[in-house]
Design brief:
The complex is a heterodimer of chains A (808) and B (168). Chain A is an alpha+beta fold and 808 residues long. Chain A contains 20 helices and 29 strands. In chain A, α18 packs across α19. In chain A, 60% of the residues are buried. Chain B is of the alpha+beta class. Chain B has two domains: 76 residues, Beta-grasp domain (Ubiquitin-like (UB roll)); 79 residues, Orthogonal Bundle (DNA polymerase, domain 1). In chain B, 37% of the residues lie in helices and 15% in strands. Chain B has a five-stranded mixed β-sheet, with helices on one face. In chain B, a hairpin with a 2-residue loop joins β1 and β2. Classes of the chains: A alpha+beta (808), B alpha+beta (168). Chains A and B meet through α1 and α18 of A and α2, α3, α4 and α5 of B.
């Protein structure tokens, strides 16, 4: 039976909402604050062994020999696995693009520094690590290829020789009459950009405890999985097992941001458990392993963009050429980050034609992984720099230029050239509010004064669309299959009217258990304390994906409200039978089942549940007595990808405008952010405090991206940033304290009108900070087109400008 | 590797007398030997601050300290803040201000804030930033943490005032 999910909070069956829409305290927090929440490294199993992994010190080499005999003699060592075992017992991990995966332990050659070559299971981690030092590996070094442009050329060393090329994918997408737009443009602006590798870096690394069952050949893995069902399917493929023989038990985990990774380590620990006769094997990735070879590295990009514009400031076409360095293979699914920009290719603008010249390349770096935002942040950075370049070229203020090109609010739902549909928005209102919040005109006046003093003060105004509620079809162009991402919840009322909810994902940090609790408490008009939320394993949970692609808040709202609606229907039928009337005569409001038109003829929800479970003699014959329902939500109206790569993919389009004021120190190249204002519109805010938390956290990550974070490889393929002394994460002193405001245009398509907002400001912040840096540099006649804009890079630009002969 | 050393420590008021390998770090001792898993390991090289505990009242990176170095010391961990489940004023402030998301770095922050507020019961923004510069949080962007520390200072002062009133 079809279930109607409310699109508006006013449609909830409660006259006075107590929780939804309010900044309620999180149900997750007491356990986290007291150290009681059980992260995977806090878990122990009887007979458990500890895994340590031996990793390649060379970027590209043949393995010509391996001797593990000395390691095997060390007391406490129970099992050792090498490429031989991986070849015998497993398949190359699933990869995107398909065919670019390798075994979890290679037999023939290593392809990046940090690639696993052998692993030990021992009675303690210390003994396992001691044993690694006793393994002898013979390497015959090969020339590495570290530059994707070189990797594309004839005669380059090949990363995966059997592929015959380092080009993983090359395709030109053209949407609309791009050539005509450029031919008839009044002005054409072009520029190149470089976005260096950076990544997720959750404070908890990946970890798991794997158990191979030697009797029924099944696998049980406990771990910090962002997406348990996805991990389960991957493991089934890696080991050639039926999917129902793999059970993943997700533990709360210390952040992910898309970059938890862990696929190889999981498969290695499963091999070790098999070799150890089924004993549980724990693998906790250490920080250097994470940085060198975990889910840590993303977005290593070389861009060339061109804009076609009319003299009145209207941008008519956009060309983007991207060479994306995905590292040694496709196991990290980094390729999907090159596909996602299609969901918001032309940003918040009416640009009518676009072209995407996309090349994915393999090199001897660590395999690229996803990271929060999943690809658009570098794209938005480049697009927003082009918008500023064009505005300057046309003599139009940066904010005004964006206003002229914004999609007007009366044109939603709006389909962009690359095929996705934006649900709703009022971009002009967001811009107006942001400019007012920042006091933009005063900022410009202050900047003029500072410039007269010779100071490098810049203002950035940037806008971006955050695609929300991802769908697999968004990644079809790189070979990902499927349409729809189901998310389920089971809601049960017990005999005393207390409520339990079961879902398939574990805590990660965004507060979804709180959201679920708010929704159910308001639906049934009970206290939040009357509700518990529990994560089930992959074999018992309803279909699920978990957090990712700014979808879970919307998706789980749909699932939970769907289940509540089904319980309501069932309870209406029971109440009708008890009241000797028809179900359509029963209404549900404020926690009571009421006979319409008969004041006083009502039953509280708890009484109905108690009757269903404890007084079967009162129930109508044939009724299922459980006050319980499962509902699985998936976005409606998604379309399979067409021949041009277009699809209705992401269900929602949140939007933001950020205004940044910063100053660059001429002497040091250091950037100080002096003011950071942002206004966003992510539809209905179901818990404003958690939305605010996502925004503030993603601003910090965006600032890290723009100014600090970079994985640096040398020409031999050694990672020079393998500790947090060298890979710089933003601290409390690096991050601006933001000033915020909001516009709310509810989505017409989603449960309660909410939009995906988890990726948040990372879509806009790097663009805004770089716009401000380039505005600061403008008097010098130089541009910073490389991210991160480190002090050294900016200092060199400033020096070059000051050393150049003055042009009058 | 078989040589062991004796470590006598008081952790959260409980005395322990253990034989350990000299290479065992304090955080592994706390987590694996004493099963106090509330202290978390983030980087194992002293940058992230997730493993911060108090040793004789001062913050220490328990990943950079050996268990044997704590011999004779008093160690306090997150488990000691709310021994009977009632949240400490600092924990309550983080709850009220949404000063955490995934919560993995949080025990380290809480212990650092304990020291901060012991030294300086009413810190300014700049003083808080100075003192928490060695704690990394990847989720919150620190803005809510800053708010939480101010609220914690207020909570603690209110708690002290209440105790004083009770005694009077």
């Amino acid at each position: 039976m079809a279930v109607k999910i409310p699109n508006n909070v006013d449609e909830l069956p409660t006259s006075a909402l107590r929780y939804v829409g309010r900044a309620v305290k999180r149900v997750e927090d007491p356990g986290l604050l007291t150290g009681r929440t059980e992260f995977i490294d806090d878990v122990s199993r009887t007979g458990m062994l500890h895994c340590a992994i031996l990793r390649s010190p060379i970027a590209h080499a043949r393995i010509t020999g391996m001797d593990v005999s000395e390691a095997a003699k060390l007391p406490g060592v129970v099992a050792i696995v090498t490429g031989e075992d991986a070849a015998r017992w497993s398949f190359p991990a699933a990869a995107v693009p398909e065919g670019w995966g390798t075994h979890c332990l290679p037999k023939d050659k290593v392809r990046f520094v940090g690639e696993p070559v052998a692993a030990v299971a021992a009675t303690s981690r210390a003994i396992a690590e001691d044993a690694l030092e006793l393994i002898a590996v013979d390497y015959e070094p090969l020339e590495p290829v570290m530059d994707p442009l070189r990797a594309m050329s004839q005669g380059s060393p090949l990363v995966l020789e059997e592929r015959g090329t380092n080009v993983m994918m090359q395709r030109l997408f053209t949407w609309g009459d791009v050539d005509a737009a450029f031919a008839t443009a009044d002005h054409v602006f072009s520029e190149k950009f470089r976005w260096n590798r950076l990544g997720a870096n959750p404070i908890e690394t990946y970890g798991c405890i794997s158990e191979w069952n030697p009797v029924d050949h099944g696998i049980v893995v406990r771990g910090g999985f962002q997406s348990p069902s996805h991990m389960a399917l991957g493991r089934a493929a890696s080991f050639g097992l039926p999917s129902n023989k793999v059970r993943m038990i997700a533990h709360p985990h210390g952040g992910s941001f898309g970059g938890k990774g862990g696929v190889r380590g999981t498969d290695i620990s499963i091999l070790l458990s098999r070799k150890a006769g089924g004993r549980p094997v724990k693998w906790i990735e250490d920080r250097m392993e994470y940085l060198v070879a975990g889910g840590s590295q993303a977005w290593d990009r070389h861009y060339e963009l061109s804009l076609a514009a009319r003299a009145d400031g209207l941008v008519t076409a956009l060309k983007v050429k991207l060479i994306d360095d995905l590292g040694a293979n496709g196991e990290g699914f980094g390729a999907i980050s090159a596909a996602k920009p299609l969901a918001a290719f032309t940003g918040p603008y009416t640009i009518g034609a676009a072209q995407y010249d996309l090349t994915l390349v393999a090199t001897n770096k660590a395999p690229a992984s996803p990271y929060r935002g999943m690809g658009p942040p570098p794209h938005n950075f480049a697009l927003e720099q082009m918008m500023d370049i064009a505005a300057k070229g046309l003599g139009i203020d940066a904010a005004e230029f964006r206003r002229r090109n914004f999609i007007p609010k009366d044109r939603f739902p709006y389909t962009i050239p690359s095929g996705n549909e934006y649900d709703s928005g009022d971009y002009q209102a967001v811009l107006d509010k942001a400019l007012a919040l920042a006091d933009y005109e005063t900022l410009r006046e202050e900047q003029a004064t500072a410039r007269q003093q010779g100071r490098l003060v810049g203002i950035g105004v940037a806008s971006a669309v955050e695609p929300g509620v991802f769908d697999w079809n968004a990644y079809a162009i790189v070979g990902v299959q499927g349409t729809g991402v189901p998310e389920g919840a089971t809601v049960s009322v017990d005999i005393l009217g207390k409520i339990s909810i079961r879902v398939g994902f574990a805590l990660e940090g965004q507060g979804q258990y709180t959201l679920i609790t708010q929704l159910v408490a308001d639906y049934f008009a009970v206290d939040m304390d009357d509700i518990t939320v529990t994560a089930l394993d992959t074999q018992s949970a309803p279909p699920h994906f978990g957090p990712g692609g700014s979808r879970l808040g919307v998706a789980i709202t749909g699932a939970v409200l769907g289940a509540c609606e089904r319980i309501r229907e069932k309870m209406c039928a029971v109440t009708a039978a008890l009241m000797q009337t028809a179900p359509e005569n029963i209404e549900f409001a404020d926690g009571n089942f009421i006979v319409k038109g008969m004041p006083g003829a009502e039953m509280p929800m708890a009484q109905v549940a108690g009757t269903m479970l404890g007084a079967s003699h009162l129930l109508p014959p044939g009724i299922d007595p459980r006050p319980e329902a499962t509902y699985v939500w998936t976005a409606a109206g998604r379309t399979p990808v067409d021949e041009e790569g277009r699809a209705k993919s992401y269900l929602t389009a949140a939007q933001a405008v950020h205004v940044v004021l910063l100053e660059i120190d001429r002497e040091t190249g250091m950037v100080e952010i002096k003011k950071y204002c942002l206004v966003d519109d992510c539809g209905t805010r179901l818990n404003p405090a958690t939305v605010e938390g996502q925004t503030e956290g993603s601003v910090a990550q965006g600032v890290g991206a723009a100014l600090l974070e970079e994985y640096v490889y040398d020409e031999d393929g050694q990672l020079l940033t393998s500790t947090y002394m060298d890979y710089l994460l933003p601290t409390i002193s690096d991050v601006p304290m933001t000033e915020k405001d909001e516009v709310v245009t509810p989505s017409p398509f989603t449960p309660l009108g909410a939009k995906g907002c988890g990726e948040g400001a990372i879509h806009t912040t790097p663009a805004a900070v770089m716009c401000a840096i380039n505005d600061a540099l403008a008097p010098l006649g130089v541009r910073a087109n490389e991210v991160p804009a480190t002090p050294v890079r900016l200092w060199k630009l400033i020096q070059a400008a000051e050393d150049a002969p003055a042009t009058v | 590797m078989t040589k062991t050393c004796r470590v006598r420590v008081k952790v959260n008021g409980v005395a322990y007398d253990e034989e350990v390998e000299p290479r065992l770090t304090l955080v592994d001792f706390l987590r694996e030997r004493l099963a106090l898993t509330g202290t978390h390991v983030g980087c194992e090289h002293g940058v992230c601050g997730a493993c911060t505990v108090l040793v004789d009242g001062r913050t220490a990176r328990s990943c950079l300290m050996l268990a044997v170095q704590a011999d004779g010391a008093k160690v306090e961990t997150v488990e000691g803040l709310a021994p009977e489940g009632e949240l400490h004023p600092i924990q309550m402030a983080f709850l009220e201000e949404h000063g955490l998301q995934c919560g993995f770095c949080t025990p380290g922050f809480l212990m650092a804030v304990c020291e901060l507020l012991e030294d300086n019961p009413g810190p300014s923004d700049d003083e808080i930033k100075e003192m928490l510069g060695g704690q990394i949080c990847r989720c919150t962007g620190y803005q809510s943490i800053l708010r939480a520390v101010h609220r914690a200072a207020a909570n603690q002062q209110a708690a002290r005032a209440a105790r004083t009133t009770l005694r009077a």
